[in-house]
Every structure is written in C-alpha cells, then in structure tokens.
Amino acid sequence: MRMTILPWESGAESEMQTPFLAGEFRVFHDGRRSLQLHAKDLNAVDEICVEPRLIYSIKERGSRSVGSMDTLFFAHRGSSHKYSENTRAAYLQAIDEGADGIECDVHLSKDGIVVCHHDPTVDRTSDSSGLVAGYTLAEMKAMDFTGVVPSIVPAEYGTENEQLLSLGELFALIEERGKPIGLAIEIKHPSPYGHLLEKGVLQVLAAHGFDPQTGTAGSQGQIAVTLMSFEPNSLRYLARTVSTALLCQLMTEVNPDYVQQLIDSGDVGRAGVYEVLYRSVPEGIELINAGGAGIVGSGVAWTRANEHLVRRWLEQGLKARIWTVDRPADAQFLVDLGVGELTSNRPAELRKELELS
C-alpha cells in the first residue's frame, strides 16, 4: 500500500518547518488503511510506504525550534479557556482552531457508560451535585455543564444539554470533523468501579478501530490515541493489552500532610483523589524507569524542579507531554528542554505566541 505525500495547502499554523526524511519511516506491506499526510517542501517526494503513525510520524522530526510543528499542542479538556471544560463546545473549538490533540478525562456513569468529565462529582462543573458514578448518562445530559466558563455557545457547537459527551460521542465528533488529531484519554482514579473503567475505555476504543500497538483509531486511522493516568496501577492494567509506548504516567507533587488533613476532616472522597496524586511521583518514577510508560506526563512546576530527570528520560528516547502550559515562558523552557508535546487550556494562542517570540 502506498501513500501520496502532498504539500501543505492551508493553515500556516500547521506547516512543518523542517525537511521531511523519508528514511525515518518504517515500511509496511500488510494492506492496512492509508492516510493522506500533509507536510511542507515535499515536492521531490512521490510515493513512499510508511507506517501510519499520523501526526507523530511527521511532526516529531527535526529540531525543537520554537514554532516548528515538531512541537504538538494538546487542548486541555478541549479549548477550556473559551468554553467550559470537557464540553462539546470546548472540543469542537479545539479541533476548529487547529489543535494537534485533545485531552479528555473519563469516568464511568451509573449505567456503565464512559463519560468525559474531570471531577468525580458534578458539583463544580454543573448546576447539580453528586457523584458522576451516581448518575446515568441521560440524567447527566439533563444538567447544564456550561457554567465553568460563562460564554455564549454557538448553535453549531450544540445546545446546553448537548454539552456533556460520552467517550463514544467524542469519537463521533472527531469523525465528523475529519481531521487527523491526537486524543489523550486520562483515566480518573480512584473509581468506585475499579478496572471496569479501563475495560469500558478499551471497549469504546475497540468499537472505533483502535490498534493497541500503534494507537491509530477512527474510520481512516486518523485519530492517534494515547492513554494516561496518575494511578500507576491503571497503566499496569492497560499494559496487558496496550503498547507501553502509548501509555502516559501523569505526575504532580502533593504534600502528604494535606492528604491527612482531608482524612481527618472526613473528606474521604477528596483524600482518595489526592492520595493517588501523592503516589504518582514515587510510583510513577519507578514505573517509567521500568519501561512501563513511554510518555512522561508531569506538571510544569514538577518538570522545572526535576529538569535533570526529565532530560534524562528524553535522552533515553521517551516522550514527554507536560501540563498545563499556558505561559509562553513555560512553553519556551519546555521546548528548549526537548519536550515535544504541550497540554494547554489555550493551545492556539500559545502556539502563535511562540511563533512570534
């Protein structure tokens, strides 16, 4: 099977600024689906056989120069500075403004549906209250999730009660737009359903053509899926069937005294969340060093404080997707460090700011 490589024809924000090296792609002949990839300055290239690794296959090449499209910008819970997080509007805005990837969070609903939502409760994000696990998908769709970022949602981005999505509906949304894009799925723990959450995610992925070795999904293989969690045991479970190259260990620093304070105050739910965050650093480092995750997912502050460790991982060939990067100074530091993927609430603006710096 052959792919025709064409010059990029639209959207300067998505141009690749470095030469294309065909020799860096691996040949395949097994008849898998083809993709049309776009890059700049490829007039001398006719047709080549490549492994369909989508965005990553091209954009990882070249130096880490500012503005170069080897730096990927992921929209944190969608373009969440413009529209409320993890909503249809935020996801569509991210796609339409040219984000290289979307980051979403997932929980299981009462009726076993994988839903895109960050918190274990709907208290902060909706006009209701209670655990996500305590509601059916239909019940949550009756809630208003547009209040986190009060803004007028365009009609084409859906009505008030169309904003909460299941993971399957997010895939359908991406399919409708038809653009190659990354999808970083964060699996939230602790979950009252345990690893049924991971099973549910894998079932949704299987229904959308997910290849657990390459990460490709979608009707045209145009979606590049990776899976993330602060909970190392989640990644260990996923590694039974999914390539560790697609697994991202999230990490952040948490004061253990704060966890104990939550326990002492009776806030067991929040204590459980912060206990996972606290363990994410020591257990996450151990997991990464053991080869259990191919992507480093640390926060900006932790990355700055542990630059030597992140640099070593990058030198060893691991990838890094750092969050939440909204300041140009942080983005510049990370690009200079060699980080290839930045997760931001404002990906389009951040990209432009780096290109102008």
Automatic annotation (TrEMBL):
Pfam families: GDPD. It comes from the Bacteria. InterPro entries: GP_PDE_dom (IPR030395), PLC-like_Pdiesterase_TIM-brl (IPR017946). Coiled coil: none annotated. Transmembrane segments: none annotated. Residues 71-354 form the GP-PDE domain. This is Glycerophosphoryl diester phosphodiesterase. It comes from Glutamicibacter mysorens. The lineage of its organism: Bacteria, Bacillati, Actinomycetota, Actinomycetes, Micrococcales.
